[in-house]
Amino acid sequence: MTSPAAATPREGDTLPGFFYALAAYLLWGFLPLYMKALAHVPAVEVIAHRVIWSVPIALAVLVWLGRTADLKAALKSPRMLAMGAMTAALISVNWGIYVWAIGAGHALDTALGYYINPLFSILLGALFLGERLRGLQWLAILSALIAVVILTVEAGRLPMIAIGLFVTWAFYAFLKRRLPIGPNQGFALEVLILLPLALGYAIWLGVRGEGHFMAGNATDTALLFGCGIVTAAPLMIYANGAKRLTLSTIAIMQYIAPTMIFLTAVFLFGEPFSQVKLVAFSFIWASLAIYLISVLRSRA
Question: Does the model's pTM come out above 0.85?
Answer without folding.
Answer: yes
